[in-house]
């Protein structure tokens, strides 16, 4: 693996000191936290500092700071050239940096350091990642028909609710559909047949919220009560005790249902208990949480793009499906616009906006305009929505361009970083790229295909969700016109 920052930029860039300041100990971190969450907001926080320092690389404190994070200092990267250093495992390590400057108690994961917190240099990482890649690969024949089955129920509910209520909350129904699909994929049964009933998504939501709360705000309090929001979410971590019984229910359900997967773990040298906790994290944190954010974003951007795009997608999707005789891996590959729309959504609103790594050694990184020295042990932070909207790489970067990655545009895919790696690279046991990368892309395409096989157009309203992603309301849904 190589870093674009060290290979394709001119080597004669001026070597500069990294600008920026951490401010006074403790108080500087508190100030930056308040700017990040309340005074400025995330995007303005980074944009203001980049303008102030005239640099896309600078020093700052990252939330949450005291008392959850003992050391909030980071080197921040905001451009497409410097960002890939975060993937260069010859120069950085990923030991316990999943959430950056803090980590929840290991109690949230059964007392284990889950694969996502391991660096690939650790032997356990290779066995766990290989295990993940294996269980995903062995289920590939189930992906499309099982997801179609879940979508059929999902779309029926959407249509029924919008007819009655005139609008429908996309996210809440999406969460249940995603959980239902994931459980059936990995456990070979409907979750409603287990002790969880239909509550699994809610239990995962609670477990996720208690871990991710330091990265967001409630978004429901008036400004003069921001101090209460800050005190509740950003000063002390939530204890695992609040979700212990819920997590145990999830664990017991997967332990008793995912029998074939847990049997397979032994061949990778993984204990059954450890395999189950890792499976829960893969299912709940990596997959459920990721699709919980991605699918509403996809529907938001396609909905806001309007009827012209909807008609183009209808034409492409229905033409190919009719010609190919159904929705298959092969037919999905023959839909360039549908594929591009998914990539563009992942570019403009990546599901995981933050990436972290720690420098293994003293090194020099490069932006478009300068080179900077980072010292061994420093924490490097990349804000992905700025890197994938770099105006020096993408034309009209703030605009959703549905066909951006069609034809010659495919050359830009190497700058799409949503999966903790380049879109042009693939997950392996020895890197940190999302093991379900290809599955996520497939499901996103199938979602669009099945949607536009049923509906001609739709309208949405959207607003930021509390922690990550968008909250989407469907305002209208026009079924496929029938011909007589």
From TrEMBL:
InterPro entries to which the protein is assigned, alphabetical: Cyt_P450, Cyt_P450_E_grp-IV, Cyt_P450_sf
Biological process annotations from GO: fatty acid metabolic process; sterol metabolic process
Keyword vocabulary terms for this entry: Heme, Iron, Lyase, Metal-binding
Cofactor: heme
Molecular function as annotated in GO: heme binding; iron ion binding; lyase activity; monooxygenase activity; oxidoreductase activity, acting on paired donors, with incorporation or reduction of molecular oxygen
Keyword Iron included in the entry's annotation: yes
CDD domains reported for this sequence: CYP74 (cd11071)
Family: Belongs to the cytochrome P450 family.
PANTHER family reported for this sequence: ALLENE OXIDE SYNTHASE 2, CYTOCHROME P450 26
Protein name: Cytochrome P450
């Amino acid at each position: 693996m190589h870093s674009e920052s060290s290979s394709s930029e001119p080597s004669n860039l001026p070597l500069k000191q990294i600008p920026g300041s951490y401010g006074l100990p403790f108080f500087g971190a508190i100030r930056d936290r308040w700017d990040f969450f309340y005074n400025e907001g995330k995007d303005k926080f980074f944009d203001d500092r980049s303008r102030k320092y005239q640099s896309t690389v600078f020093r700052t404190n990252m939330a949450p700071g005291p008392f959850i994070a003992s050391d909030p200092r980071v080197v921040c990267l905001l451009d497409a050239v410097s960002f890939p250093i975060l993937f260069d495992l010859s120069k950085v390590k990923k030991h316990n940096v999943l959430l950056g400057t803090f980590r929840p108690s290991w109690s949230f994961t059964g007392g284990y350091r889950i694969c996502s917190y391991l660096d690939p240099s650790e032997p356990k990482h290779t066995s766990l990642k290989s295990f993940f890649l294996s269980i995903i690969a062995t289920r590939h024949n189930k992906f499309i028909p099982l997801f179609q089955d879940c979508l059929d129920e999902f779309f029926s509910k959407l249509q029924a609710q919008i007819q009655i209520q005139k609008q429908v909350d996309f996210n809440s129904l999406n969460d249940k559909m995603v959980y239902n699909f994931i459980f059936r994929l990995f456990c070979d049964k409907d979750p409603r047949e287990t002790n969880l009933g239909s509550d699994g998504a809610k239990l995962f939501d609670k477990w996720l919220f208690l871990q991710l709360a330091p990265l967001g705000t409630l978004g429901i309090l008036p400004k003069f009560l921001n101090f209460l929001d800050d005190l509740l979410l950003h000063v002390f971590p939530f204890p695992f005790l609040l979700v212990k019984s819920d997590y145990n229910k999830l664990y017991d359900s997967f332990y008793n249902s995912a029998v074939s997967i847990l049997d397979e773990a032994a061949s990778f040298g993984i204990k059954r208990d450890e395999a189950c906790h890792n499976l829960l994290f893969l299912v709940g944190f990596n997959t459920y949480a990721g699709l919980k954010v991605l699918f509403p974003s996809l529907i938001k951007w396609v909905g806001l793009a309007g009827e012209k795009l909807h008609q183009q997608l209808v034409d492409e999707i229905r033409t190919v499906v009719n010609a190919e005789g159904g929705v298959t891996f092969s037919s999905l590959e023959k839909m360039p616009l549908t594929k591009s729309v998914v990539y563009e959504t992942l570019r403009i609103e990546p599901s995981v906006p933050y990436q972290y790594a720690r420098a293994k050694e003293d090194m020099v990184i490069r932006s478009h305009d300068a080179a900077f020295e980072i010292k061994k042990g420093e924490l490097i932070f990349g804000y992905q929505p700025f890197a994938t909207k770099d105006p020096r790489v993408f034309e009209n970067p703030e605009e959703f361009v549905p066909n951006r990655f069609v034809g010659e545009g495919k050359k830009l895919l190497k700058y799409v970083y949503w999966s903790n790696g380049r879109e042009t690279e693939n997950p392996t046991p020895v890197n940190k790229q999302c093991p379900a990368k290809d599955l996520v892309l497939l499901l996103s395409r199938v979602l669009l295909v099945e949607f536009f096989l049923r509906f001609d157009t739709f309208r949405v309203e959207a607003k930021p969700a509390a922690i990550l992603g968008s909250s989407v309301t469907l305002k209208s849904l026009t079924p496929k016109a029938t011909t007589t």
